[in-house]
Amino acid sequence: MKKAVILYWSSTGNTEKVARSIGEGLREAGVDVSLMTIDEAEGIDYFDYDLVCIGFPSYYWHTPKPVSDYLKKHFNDHRRQGKVKLGSPNVPGKNVLIFCTYSGPHTGIDEATPAGDYVGQFFGHIGFNVLDKWYVLSEFIGNEAASTKGRMGDIRGMPTEDELIGIKAKAVLLAEKL
Ligand SMILES: Cc1cc2nc3c(=O)[nH]c(=O)nc-3n(C[C@H](O)[C@H](O)[C@H](O)COP(=O)(O)O)c2cc1C
Description:
By secondary structure, the protein is α/β, with parallel strands linked by helices. It has helices at residues 14-28, 65-80, 113-124, 144-148, 161-175; strands spanning 3-8, 32-37, 51-57, 95-102, 129-137. Strands 2-1-3-4-5 form a 5-stranded parallel beta sheet, with helices on both faces. Helix 1 packs across helix 5 (161-175).
């Protein structure tokens, strides 16, 4: 049985909803899934899993500080273990899915892709294969103007139940790539 861990950080719940939907899809596909916040994931070793899923919101088109701190700490641990090699050779069977929720009030998805690319580098450096990056448009909870008058229009209630079902379905398909 393939093993996956879903790590996430979520302040207003959007990223958590996406994380849970991914978990449902992977489980449906027969994957052994552990779901945890990054605060609960202090001691985990990415290399114990066939798939690491990591999710976070875009904050100022970057990762929130607790997420970047977490990634840097794990990166330095891997470096000490000799797992950061020049040339970053691919480690067979080690995959990562990156997912980022964002509201895009100013420049749309361009406010999220830099954060996804940044996180991808932490995994690419240790030889993981970046399977995909999913950017999920989400309500800016607590900021009505940004949720109604921004570039993406009225995004209240997003991700919707239907969108979450779609994410679950994508996760089922993703499991086939493991
Ligand atoms: C402090 C802060 C900064 C944010 N900055 C951005 C941003 O630069 N671009 C963007 O698209 N969304 C931004 N957002 C919106 C969040 O990325 C979005 O609402 C996300 O879905 C929140 O995820 P969460 O509910 O899991 O915490 C920001 C939200 C907060 C609270």
